[in-house]
């Protein structure tokens, strides 16, 4: 679905008012040389702005004949927030160099960002005259003009082809051209292109420029947080005062809920430029998240003091609020930004995403189309517009306050069951948490991972994410999108709807760890096989340094060390919720959620509702978690056999003499004995392995291997018991569900067969076998509605015995009194198998019944 967007081309022509934040880098024209200028540029690049400003002023006073000195002085002055001085410098420079295009473009930027909008507008005339009279000739002019034209809404490809790419090709050592291309790619959300472009930049110049490292960090921010962090550290090592890099760091600290750390970074930015609008915007966002309305208002006013018409301020505040799931407040800020500039596309695009996440689809999709029409190279807008076409083909099921959207075939296969899970979750969880939902809840289940990612994040690339809840909107990666080993879609739906309940209760004011912890905890209560069990690795992490104190659990999600640590964060968060409920009661947790909704921080709420200081809670939770870990396989040791893959059971027994309680060694012994079909020895060792670590449900667990043994030795009762123990611990164990279904049918236990077919379908409803098994079991149990639904699902797979399936379906419909529907199905069966004797008999029966009970006459129409 995702591809190269079709551009809505806007030719380079008349200039219009452009948006905040265009980065001019105008120093370093190849024709300007001199040791003093190089020294000044280095001072600027390394953040010694005052020294740079002083040196440039001295050279200007001596009568310097290069405009680059004035440009450098203006840049040093604006970096320090001295816009009055910068305005005076630029006016002097334009008088001295009336034909310098770079100076005119810089003047426009200085005037506009300091709120001198009349002077900014007047400057455009001078820019236009320069362009009319001559082409941009130097690399600096071409790059500066290209950046400017992009800000006016000019066609991105045309700017690339006419301005940036020729400089990259003809003057490959000119770093700024490479940076301009990377900036453009990032504004279009093409991080891969940005990274590729930066890799081709001139190495020596790039390595010494903080802008290069900052852009590299932005390129890797979503996919490689460690590399992005390293790049920002390198930028700040070059220039400790580099505002863009410091603000990048502050942004991530806010995401990690480290508001104190973010404040320290913002202070560093404001120490250089006390009026930096982005720093004040971040402060406003933090104040909002801290429920500090007065601080938010004051910070926002500071952010707008220099340029009251700056739309980027409200856009930035709103974007940070939306990243904290405050979509309603975030959307309100985007509307304020658009009041200042109704064509400001970043705000319009963010408002689009906010509204779609709030379930306001009419305006949200309209905005997506508007952004795409204005900027055909905006990848997010392109993806959303294409996704809307895909969603229009989905089936919509509405009931009980839900709007469920699914691909047509999948809706036939498990749409009814999905709605039933949602309805059950609503009844159980809303009642338990005292929540009454006041909005329709939209749930969309996607068969393609890219579509899920675009609906959820605006961009493809969501590997490992199974579902996301925004409150009134839930998106789910369906079984088809998960590959060969899908997770239970029922568990995902239950988990995400639990988020809807807790987000509603707290008005979206809850840390991620608590939200995820409650959802995983409630999964486990509904079905123990859905939860997360104490794996050997989790046990090790819980007993080691990876266990995070309760008061700092947010960092587990927001700054994890690895993908494993993210998974452990879910486990630990659920353990924390279990600790709170078991130690202080469910009401303490429930009322703490009310406190969050009222504006308290999570730590304040927990202290209030448990009556314990935070340090005590941290200590108690640590003791609880480690006691739980020690209770798992307490007699086991964890050495791993250093044996060759082909080693037999005898070799493993020799190794075990030195490590008799090694879980991994005993597991390997059991695997070897089963492979060698030494059933008596294997049974003894497997029972010992199960006793050693009964919770283990991972690969080659004792229950799985015992089931193999019992099947091979024709002991179906024991096999079923072993499989049931496995299935109870792992809701995704389709091999267990399948075999239990077969055993139930073979033994005539249709209740067990139906139960396990449903378990199977809860993981993978995309094959006909579990539907057929459920249909047969339900038919034996006289559950005609369920059997009918299951047989219809079987037919969606185009099975070779469709005639037989239609016949069974017709029988069920006839038994339910649906004779017309039964007649249609039996006729279809006879179309596929004209000599189907039982079908002929059923058709004759239906015809005879129709003749005995003719349809009532239709009422006459009024004359």
TrEMBL record:
Residue ranges of every copy of the Peptidase MA-like domain listed in the record: 429-624
Family matches, as Pfam families: Peptidase_MA_2, TPR_19
Alphabetical list of InterPro entries matching this protein: CellSynth/LPSAsmb/PSIAsmb, Peptidase_MA-like_dom, TPR-like_helical_dom_sf, TPR_rpt
PANTHER family: TETRATRICOPEPTIDE TPR_2 REPEAT PROTEIN, TPR REPEAT-CONTAINING PROTEIN PA4667
Protein name: Peptidase MA-like domain-containing protein
Keywords: Repeat, TPR repeat
Species per Swiss-Prot/TrEMBL record: Gemmata obscuriglobus
